[in-house]
Specification:
heterotrimer; A mainly alpha; B mainly alpha; C alpha+beta; B: mainly alpha; Cytochrome Bc1 Complex, Chain C; 2 domains; two-stranded antiparallel sheet; 19 helices; 8 strands; globular; C: alpha+beta; 5-stranded antiparallel β-sheet; 4-stranded antiparallel β-sheet
């Protein structure tokens, strides 16, 4: 120590100390906040990232830039996390077929393995939301249906409609139906805020609350049509349509029969 | 005399001793009612009303009209533990824990929708056939009153369960009240017992919905029916039918069987709809709170056109001298509907002013023979339909891959441009149909059979129409337009000259028609 | 034109055409049987209704095409009731059509107006009655009667006064005050800026004071939407900018048009959309209205952080929230 303290007034002392402090804090932080990932040797993980990068360059870089920095037509992917990729590519929204208003769900272009590789690559660019594991997604155990409904109606129904059937946004965009959507994708969508959907971080809607929402959506999906044909679960519009077609139609038909002369 | 006859006779005598009813019954048991399917539309409305009374009474035995907050622990699990009003909870109870409860709720709501549909189609039938003319103007006004009150009654009714969708509707209604100049905030606070949503509104509209309005309906419907009874029903033109008679079937037995049977038909159809089609699933909407909203929030269809008008309104609001007037609410929400309903109610008088016709009419018009009236009706209908479509613009957009912005602009322009176009097209259509009628009478029906004449030319065989059909096609009147002078006997321009000029002009437009076939025309044709 | 020409004449009621059941006893029996079957179908419907009510379990569900999986009890109760009603009607109508006499009957109309003698008699009675009452002569009675009847109309109006309190300044104020913490809805958790990512949205309410309960009345004015953008994306006046915090901006969630909850935020366009009447608000420009019938932007709530780092309101709202009213005098 006496040896070091000789250099304490050296002009490089302050910057070096700063560098040391940053490195210490940085490594401590990254160690402390590291999410458990599949155990893979460093070599294997690097290979996966390279493979992912190869797929990325081929299918995504034309819009998202060679280093995923974004461009005219597509946003930067730095920091969007593995969850975004798993959602967008897993549901087939990406690659986007045409530059219309909205990326629609369609048959995915990449298989599950390729999606995972892409996700790893993008995740390697910067920290971002990770793909939720099955343990995290156990909504049956960790979710509360009634609270999920309450949360859904406060945070989701204004876009997706009260029964998660979907709804209109401006200029032809729409919030899609949530019927039949995998819980993992719902979770990831909330976490990453795809396209028009806002981001619902874990402090605003906690993981438990997210699971409650998913549990409620699944319950609504499974709920049979209690009063008869559900008519789309969109409310009075289809009800009015039915009464003006089947309702009065049947009755006018009977009225015509009533007033007709019998043979 | 059989035993049955003796018993009936005794009972009848008992009643007649005390009321003198035999005389009245004798006269009315044989009352004649013309038989046409379009005369049953009003009956659909009447029977729907009775079904509303019956099903509604059932619901009142379980419904609790209170906004007092409770925690739900009934049988519908997805709402378990949530805070809600007693009104909402009791509606859940009816839906899930009262046997037949959901069925009755659905019967009540489907009957309400059908009630309004029937009123509208009945109104259209009465309008297009001119049944509102003297002596039936009062009945027309009562009918317009029933239409307006029906809209209010339905709105209050579906607001009672205090669910998210209907609560949103109440919020919008409160905004309309609040927007009234000078008195708005006061009337709103009086109606809601304070700030919105408060806890007084549901109990108060319950009283209006189950007591006040049904009472008014019963009174108006009774007068409406009594007038039809006493004035006798109108009839379509036809052979043997004149302004001085009624041709049809007697009350006992035919009309009673048919009309009475039709009540059961209407009830049966409503019950069938309620069995197979879900309506107003309030458990999915959730309890009302002002902090929540659903995409695709609409009122029931009979208010949808009002919603559409509000949606398409330009953002007009004036701020002057420390006060705000929201024209974007008042115009589509109150002023335009006010003008429409007032115009509708006064229409019989407007039309008789234009035509100068002050006589009684019991034979209905064929719509083609009154092209101005028919075109005006088409115009009003187009206006309402554009409004109605815009009320569902978000759902229509997502279904047909349009944008709400496109639909909004279509509606804003369309509601001004489409009605006049509808007027012109309809009038031209009516005149064409008149021409076709004239051709039919003069030349007969085209049979499609071609005959080659000895001279070599091909001629289509025309079959003359029956005298009954010829009568139907030519029995209508074609009054001359008014020619009110604007000067009096001494040539001095009289006051009210402008009014007369306007009247003349409108009367002339009203009288545009293809001249109908006369007996002389037919004789001329025979010589062809 | 047609006045001078002779119109085609009315050929009179056409000859009556008899139905099969009128002259053929076999057809008549057949019609009777048909009516009977209809009535029996109704009876079957009632039996189905009774069976469903008593013996079908509330928890039974069946699958049918078009309807999907539906509650069996509700379905069969309804179908049973529908059949029981419909076929009574069908039976009665078929009976009337095929078996009851269908010869058209003519009844004469009478002119609606009463005859002149009756009218004159009425006028005479009315005049005599009015003269007997003597209102015309007795102006003191007439005036005081008018006064008493007019005044009595005021009493019921007065009775309505307690329907509600006067609004006073209630429409102008909310629960938000300087230093009130923003908490999540539902959950009531206070929020730090780091809880919100760029593009995030949070539904918030004011933190309750000790012993206070959250009422729907409060929510109806207090509901606020928190949105995070990048600070450089704002296009606000300096004073409005000072009401934001690190790219986080707060608006009243109650639509300035007719009071629906505006919670729909489009992350990419940064627009707020009200689902009721499609008013669209641009967040970077302070929730300025860019489409639809709303006439005013949403009131902005100034936010900052307190000593513990949680988001708090800087001040109460500077204008009334929600729909407009006569006394509102801020633009």
């Amino acid at each position: 120590m006496k040896h070091l303290s000789r250099y304490r007034r050296h002009k490089a002392a302050a910057p070096l100390l700063l560098l040391f402090a940053l490195l210490a804090i940085g490594t401590t932080f990254s160690v402390a906040s590291a999410t458990p990932s599949k155990s893979m040797s460093t070599f294997a993980r690097t290979a996966a990232i390279d493979e992912g990068r190869a797929i990325f360059l081929k299918g995504c870089s034309s819009c998202h830039g060679l280093n995923a920095e974004g461009g005219q037509v597509a946003p930067s992917l730095i920091g969007v996390g593995a969850a975004s990729v798993d959602f967008q590519v897993g549901t087939g929204r990406m690659p986007m077929a045409d530059m219309s208003q909205q990326a629609m769900r369609k048959p995915p272009k990449y298989n599950a393995e390729q999606v995972a590789l892409l996700a790893q690559y993008v995740a390697s660019l910067a920290t971002g939301p990770a793909i939720p594991t099955d343990e995290v997604l156990n909504y049956e155990r960790d979710g509360n249906t009634a609270q999920g409904g309450q949360l859904f109606r406060t945070n989701c129904a204004m876009c997706h409609n009260f029964a998660a059937q979907g709804g209109a946004l401006t200029q032809g965009k729409y919030a899609p139906t949530l019927m039949g959507v995998e819980p993992k994708y719902m979770y990831e969508a909330m976490l990453t805020g795809p396209q028009s959907m806002p981001v619902f971080g874990d402090k605003v809607i906690t993981p438990a609350e997210k699971l409650s929402i998913i549990k409620w959506i699944k319950a609504a999906q499974a709920e049979p049509a209690l009063g008869g044909a559900a008519l789309g679960r969109v409310g009075p519009v289809t009800e009015g349509l039915l009464i003006w077609t089947l309702g009065i139609g049947l009755l006018i038909g009977v009225a015509v029969w009533l007033a007709m002369k019998a043979r | 005399m059989s035993a049955r006859e003796r018993v009936v006779g005794t009972v009848a005598g008992y009643v007649d001793d005390r009321t003198g009813a035999a005389k009245w019954m004798k006269k009315n048991l044989n009352k004649v009612f013309p038989d046409h399917w379009s005369f049953l539309l009003g009956e659909i409305a009447l029977y729907s009303f009775i079904i509303l009374l019956l099903s509604g009474t059932f619901l009142t035995f379980w419904f609790v009209p209170s906004q007092h907050e409770v925690i739900y622990n009934g049988s519908y699990q997805p709402l378990s533990g949530l805070s809600m009003s007693e009104a909402y909870q009791s509606t859940l109870h009816i839906s899930f824990d009262v046997r037949g409860g959901l069925l009755m709720r659905q019967i009540h709501h489907w009957a309400a929708l059908l009630f309004m549909v029937a009123i509208v189609v009945h109104l259209l039938r009465v309008y297009f056939t001119g049944a509102f003319r003297k002596p039936r103007e009062f009945n027309w006004i009562i009918g317009v009153g029933l239409l307006t009150l029906g809209i209010v009654e339905g709105f209050l009714g579906y607001s009672l369960p205090d669910d998210l969708l209907s609560g949103t509707g109440i919020r919008i209604a409160e905004a309309i009240i609040q927007a009234l100049p000078v008195v708005g905030s006061y009337i709103s606070y009086f109606a809601f017992g304070g700030a919105f949503p408060g806890d007084a509104f549901i109990p108060r509209i319950y009283t209006v919905h189950v007591l006040l309005l049904p009472g008014i309906f019963l009174a108006l419907i009774t007068v409406h029916l009594m007038l039809v009874w006493y004035q006798k029903h109108t009839q379509y033109p036809g052979p043997g039918r004149t302004e001085k008679n009624v041709v049809g079937y007697p009350l006992l037995p035919v009309y009673m069987a048919k009309a009475g049977g039709f009540f059961f038909i209407v009830f049966g159809v409503i019950a069938f709809l309620s069995a197979v089609a879900s309506i107003n699933p309030i458990w999915l909407y959730g309890p009302y709170t002002p902090g929540q909203i659903s995409a695709g929030s609409q009122p029931d269809w009979y208010m949808g056109w009002l919603d559409g008008l509000v949606r398409m309104s330009p953002p007009l609001e004036t701020h002057a001298f420390g006060h705000t007037i929201s024209w974007n609410i008042l115009i589509p929400g109150l002023i335009v509907p006010g003008i429409m309903f007032t115009g509708l109610a006064l229409y019989p008088f407007i039309e008789s002013w234009i035509s100068g016709d002050k006589r009684e009419h019991h034979i209905l018009d064929r719509p083609r023979n009154v092209p101005n009236r028919t075109a005006l009706g088409a115009m009003a209908l187009t206006f309402t339909i554009v409004g109605l479509l815009n009320g569902g613009n978000d759902i229509i957009s997502t279904t047909f891959h349009l944008t709400i912005n496109q639909m909004m602009w279509f509606s804003r322009i369309g509601i001004l441009v489409l009605p006049p176009i509808a007027f012109v097209i309809t009038k031209r259509l009516c005149l064409s149909l008149q021409r076709a009628d004239r051709d039919l009478v003069l030349h007969g029906r085209e049979t499609g059979t071609l005959v080659r004449m000895p001279s070599g030319e091909f001629v289509e065989v025309h079959e003359p129409i029956s005298p009954e059909k010829a009568w139907v096609l030519t029995q209508h009147e074609q009054p001359k337009p008014l020619e009110l002078s604007d000067t009096d006997a001494r040539g001095v321009k009289r006051p009210g000259a402008i009014k007369n000029k306007l009247r003349n002009r409108m009367s002339r437009a009203n009288a545009v028609a293809v001249p109908k076939v006369s007996a002389q025309d037919l004789k001329e044709i025979e010589h062809h | 034109m047609s006045n001078e020409l002779e119109a085609i004449s009315d050929p009179g009621l056409p000859a009556h055409v008899h139905r099969k059941a009128d002259h053929d006893p076999i057809a008549e029996k057949k019609a009777e049987r048909q009516v009977a079957i209809l009535f029996l179908l109704s009876a079957a419907g009632t039996i189905l209704f009774i069976y469903s009510y008593i013996w079908i379990s509330q928890d039974l569900f069946i699958y049918l095409p078009v309807l999907g999986t539906t509650n069996a009890k509700q379905l069969f109760l309804g179908v049973g009731l529908a059949a029981s009603l419909f076929f009574i009607g069908a039976g009665a109508i078929h009976w009337a059509k095929t078996l009851m006499p269908d010869e058209e009957v003519i009844a004469m109309r009478h002119e609606m107006r009463s005859d002149d003698a009756d009218r004159a008699a009425l006028v005479k009675s009315a005049k005599e009655g009015a003269a007997a009452a003597g209102l015309g002569r007795r102006s003191l009675i007439k005036r005081t009667m008018g006064l008493s009847l007019g005044l009595i109309g005021l009493s019921p109006l007065l009775l309505l006064r307690d329907l509600g309190p006067l609004p006073a300044k209630q429409l102008d104020v909310t629960s938000w005050d300087k230093g009130t913490r923003l908490v999540t809805d539902p959950g009531n958790r206070p929020i730090k800026p780091s809880d919100l990512e760029v593009g995030a949205v949070a539904q918030v309410l004011p933190q309750l004071r000790a012993g206070e309960e959250r009422t729907l009345n409060n929510i109806g004015k207090d509901a606020v939407l928190l949105i995070r953008l990048r600070p450089e994306e704002f296009q606000l006046t300096p004073e409005k900018l000072a009401m934001t915090h690190e790219g986080i901006i707060a608006f009243s969630k109650i639509c300035s048009h007719m009071g629906c909850a505006i919670a729909l935020y489009e992350q990419q366009t940064k627009h707020l959309l009200c689902p009721c009447h499609q008013s669209t608000f641009d967040v970077p420009r302070g929730a300025k209205v860019i489409f639809g019938p709303a006439a005013r932007p949403l009131p902005q709530l100034g936010i900052s952080v307190d000593s513990e780092g949680y988001l708090v309101a800087q001040n109460p709202f500077s204008e009334p929230v929600g729909p407009s009213f006569w006394e509102r005098n801020t633009k």
